[in-house]
Every structure is written in C-alpha cells, then in structure tokens.
Design a protein that fits this description.
CATH superfamily: MFS general substrate transporter like domains
Structural class: mainly alpha
CATH topology: Growth Hormone, Chain: A
Order of helices and strands: HHHHHHHHHHHHHHHHH
Number of helices: 17
CATH class: Mainly Alpha
Distance between the termini: 7 Å
Length: 403
C-alpha cells in the first residue's frame, strides 16, 4: 500500500467537503431507488409493460456508466471542480425534464441524460477521496461513504412511496430535482480543487483510461466490483415485483422490506469500516462473498422449487446485506492500484458497475412478474463471476498483507 496521507492532505478532507461528497454519492442511489414504488402506477398511467417502465431505470444506468468515462477523463485533464460543476448543472436540468416528460419515451430519454449528469458527482467524488487519502484509510473512507450512502436506498423507497401517495409519481421526480440542485450548490460553493496542475494528464483525453485498463490487478478488482453491484442491482430492479406481486406486500410493506435490507447494507459497511485498519481487506471481502453466494444458492433452489412465501425475504436479506463489506473495500483496493490516474480509475469502476447494472435490470423480468427464477439465476451468475474475479486478483500477491 502507499503511504498514509500527510497531515496536510488529510486536513483537506474537512467536514464541509465530506458532507458534499456524501451528497454527491447519495443522489445517484436516490435517483435510482426513490421512484421504484411508483413503477406499477407509471405502468398504469402510460398503459405500458413492466419491461418498458424498467427501461427508464436501464437508460439511467447506461447514462451513469458512459457519463463516468467522460467526466473521469475530464477530471484527470482539467481538475476536479470544472467537470463536477458542469455535470451537476446537467443533472439539475435533466431532472426537471424528467419531471415534466409527457410520455414514457421522453421520460426514458430524460432519465438517460439525468444519469449522465449524476455520473459527474459519483465519479469525481471518488477521485477526490483518492486525491486526499491513501492506503487503508482510502478503503476506510470509502466504506464510511458507502455506509452513509446506504441510507439513501434505505429511505428512498419510503420517501418515494410517501411523496407519491400525496403528489403522484411526478412529485417524486421533482424531489429528485431538488436533490440535484443541492449537489450543484455544493459543487460550486464547497468543493475546491484537489488535483493540481502538475499531476494532470496530457495527450489524448482517454489515454489515462487506457493506462488503468492495462493494470491487471485493477481490472480484476473492477470485475469483482461490478459483478457484486450487478447482483445487488438485480435485486433492486426486481424488488417491486418480488415483494408486491410474488410475496404480496403492499407498496408501504415493500418499502419497509427494502429499507431493512438497506439497513443491513449500512451495518455491514460500518463493520467493514471498523475492520479496515485491523483486518486484511481481502479477508473481509472473502467472508462477505461466502455469505452472499451461499444465500444466492439457497434463493435459486427455493425459486426453482416454486416457493413464493415471505421466506424469500429472509434469504434476500442475506444476499444483499453483506455486499456492503465488498464494495468499499474493493474500491479502495482498486484505486490504490492506479492512484496517479484516479479519475479515470474511478470512471472505469463506475462505468463497469452501471453497465453491469443496466445489463441485469431487464434480465430479472424475463421470467414474468410472478416468478423469482430470473432474478435468482441472474444474481447467482453475477456472484459466481465476482468470486472468480476475487480469485484472479489473488494470483498476483502484493507485499503488504492488508491488500
């Protein structure tokens, strides 16, 4: 691992900046999860199918994925602040467009642009953390940020269900527009440059991206990170129909179950952050992967056997909660491999993450709205890939045990 940050660099991650980084990291999950309870209502209003409504989620994830490549490269070239400000402004404008969209097709387009804008905050906030921390502290900060960010998916469906009950699903999108506005204000008035001119990339815009993708160990961690996210995203995309159509929960009951699972993510993230400087990061990841893979195998067996009871909710909890011990640690390990080009490294992580999410989101609906089989198989395949990638990164041992 690299050296721990100096006192001067550590001081740059002050309370105000930390708060903005949390905000930048939570608006994406808010924009992903808050309108999920409204899927059935949107399907009814637009007289569409479940797959067509889920496409609004897919385009958002594609926008997040591709947008991160651009913003990450620009942040390595121009510094962190300018791309961040342009991106958050785009996020605000697209959020307004989504709230006003008169058709499902226009809503889908607006959601894609919204994802591109939201990507700036997601990727550049990670690069800023990598700029001002190093070593085990990087993994610890990422675990803390992702733990706090886990509050967003915990409260987002509850907020969305409440807002939609009183103002309809469009009111949910207006609330997201307000959250986007807060990110823009923080980007302009709080964030200061952390990537000095001498450290910035020159030459071709995407040259740093090519450099990070040639780092074998980084690529392994990137696959692990995106595969774990794909497993979680398969749950997120399928959750409205899993809980409401298959297990028979009301929209509020679904939101409560979703919140419990998110609180599980938060708890595992807190544990991960506390262990980051005491236990080798790879050991923590290995334990978490073992739990989620076992739960996924049980889920697949139950789904194939035709189970549709609340027992599935218990198994899903153990499929989801331990992923909080994987994401932050894997991010820290990956960016430690490419510290000089952390913007592009963060972009590669984010792009692979959301492309994986965009890929699995439509797959979970292939089995219909009354069967959990497609969800179970999609999550299982994703987790098997994550385990394989974890083994791949272990083939090249690093000198420091905590890596």
């Amino acid at each position: 691992m690299g050296p721990m940050p100096t006192s001067s660099s550590a001081a740059r991650l002050g309370p105000a900046l930390f708060a903005v980084l949390v905000l930048l990291g939570t608006t994406g999950p808010l924009a992903t999860d808050m309108y999920l309870p409204s899927f059935p209502a949107m399907q009814q209003e637009f007289a569409s199918t479940a797959s067509a409504v889920q496409l609004t989620l897919t385009t958002f994830l594609v926008g997040m994925a591709l947008g991160q490549l651009v913003w990450g490269a620009l942040s390595d070239r121009w510094g962190r602040t300018t791309p961040l400000r342009y991106g958050t402004l785009l996020f605000v404008l697209a959020s307004v467009g989504a709230a006003l969209a008169p058709s499902l097709e226009l809503l889908t387009v607006a959601r894609g642009v919204q994802g591109i804008g939201a990507a700036a905050g997601l990727v550049i906030s990670k690069a800023i953390v990598a700029d001002v921390t190093s070593g085990a502290q990087t993994a610890r900060i990422f675990s803390i940020l992702m733990t706090i960010g886990g509050v967003a998916p915990a409260v987002a469906p509850l907020m969305g269900a409440g807002v939609a009950e009183f103002g309809g699903w469009r009111a949910v999108l207006w609330v997201l527009g307000f959250a986007a506005t807060l990110t823009a204000l923080g980007s302009f008035f709080v964030v200061r440059e952390t990537h000095p001119v001498p450290a910035r990339s020159t030459g071709a815009l995407f040259a740093p991206l090519g450099q990070v993708l040639r780092q074998r160990r980084f690529v392994g961690y990137m696959v692990l990170f995106s595969a774990a996210f794909a497993a979680m995203m398969s749950y997120i995309a399928a959750s409205p129909f899993l809980y409401q159509n298959i297990m028979g929960f009301s929209p509020t009951g679904y939101a409560l179950c979703f919140g419990i699972n998110s609180l599980g993510l938060i708890t595992s993230g807190i544990i991960s952050a506390r262990l980051a400087t005491k236990v080798p990061l790879r050991r923590t990841i290995a334990v978490a992967l073992l739990i989620v893979l076992t739960a996924s195998l049980v889920m697949t067996a139950l789904a194939l056997a035709g189970f549709q009871s609340v027992l599935l909710a218990v198994v899903i909890f153990f499929m989801v909660a331990p992923i909080g011990m994987v994401m932050g640690n894997t991010t820290g390990l990956a960016l430690n491999e490419v510290r000089k080009t952390s913007g592009s490294g963060s972009a590669a992580l984010g792009c692979s993450q959301f492309l994986a999410g965009a890929l699995v989101s439509p797959l979970v609906g292939l089995g219909g709205e009354q069967s959990p089989v497609a969800f179970a198989v999609t999550a299982l395949v994703s987790l098997l890939l994550a385990v394989a990638a974890f083994g791949y990164t272990a083939e090249s041992r690093q000198p420091q045990a905590r890596r």
